[in-house]
Amino acid sequence: MLELDPSKMLLQRLLQPINFKEALAELVAMAFFVYVGCGSAATQAGDPGWILGVSLQFGLAITALAYATAHISGGQINCAVTFALVIAKQKSVAQGLVNLCFQLVGSIIGAAFLLAATGEADRTAGGLGSNTISSGYSINNAFVTEMLMTALLVYVVFETAVNKKSVASNNAPIAIGFTVFLAHMVNIPITGCSINPTRSFGPAVVASLNGTPNLWKHHWVFWVAPLTGAGLVALIRGLIITKDNGSDNPAIELKEADTSINDDVKV
Fold first, then answer.
1. Which is higher by pLDDT, 62 or 242?
2. Phi, psi (degrees; rounded to nearest 5) at 217
3. Which residues fall within 8 angstroms of residue 107, CB to CB, at 6 or more apart?
4. Which strand (E) or helix (H) includes residue 171?
5. Quick one: DSSP state of residue 267?
């Protein structure tokens, strides 16, 4: 009977070839996402109904870009989503790390173009839509809401885009976009809404280099809280979905197919 050695399975996941086309798609999508999403905050903040407008912009942006990149990278456009997919064994560790690096570069590029486009007209006090904790709210408030809203996003991703039993099919990006919209409606008054550490990173880097102070004071919250929420969903639900779907690891599937004809072979 076929037996899979857990240590060899882990090694196969770690050593899978890197898909740089996927990583490049993540870079391009992240650059556009930061530009149009944070750009809406930089140009609309303070206007009547601006929170609704910015929330819609982020939601529509992720919908459009997820559709554009789903066939290449799966439309992650968020290292918290990438992290969850790695934990749930949907992505290799190596691919996840490469995607993260490309997402970070894309975020910086998008923020740099946003600075070039808005300059001193930026309505977020030169922050290019950077995430900070609003006056009247505590670190605990920010941590809880960022963790919960990221958990909601990752849950929707798993159930609509990953779960083979999903009724969403190719419409998963719409559900994901609505979720991003809902999260922003809740989180913008508290943190400006991150739920995406890579989205937070680029504007903070570019704005701080441009002289905007105090952007790094609570920046850790916009990494630890989203990754915590994403990780919890991946452990509680993601791994179950991966198991129900069957192995999504190409290296393991190939091994199983090649050796299944010989009951004595051990992988």
1. 62
2. -55, -45
3. 30, 31, 34, 198, 199, 201, 202, 203, 205
4. none
5. -
Give CA angle at 73 (106, 94), nearest 5°. Answer: 80
Structure token pair of residue 93: 């560790």
pLDDT at residue number 259? 36
Q: Which residue has the tokens 């051990």?
A: 266
Q: How far apart are CA 96 and CA 100, in angstroms?
A: 6
Tokens of 126: 């030169």
Kindly state the helix (H) or strand (E) to which residue 251 belongs, with its residue range.
Answer: helix 250-259
Beta bridge mates, 235: none
**Terminal C-alpha separation, the chain:** 11
Distance CA 246, CA 256 (A): 12
What is the CB-side half-sphere exposure of residue 240 using CA atoms within 13 A?
9
CB 261 within 8 A of CB 255: no
* Gap between the Cα atoms of 198 and 99, Å rounded: 11
For 95, the token pair is 């691919």
Hey, what domains does the chain have and what are their CATH numbers?
Answer: 17-248 (1.20.1080.10)
For 62-66, 165-169, 227-231, 251-255, which range has the lowest pLDDT when averaged over its residues? 251-255
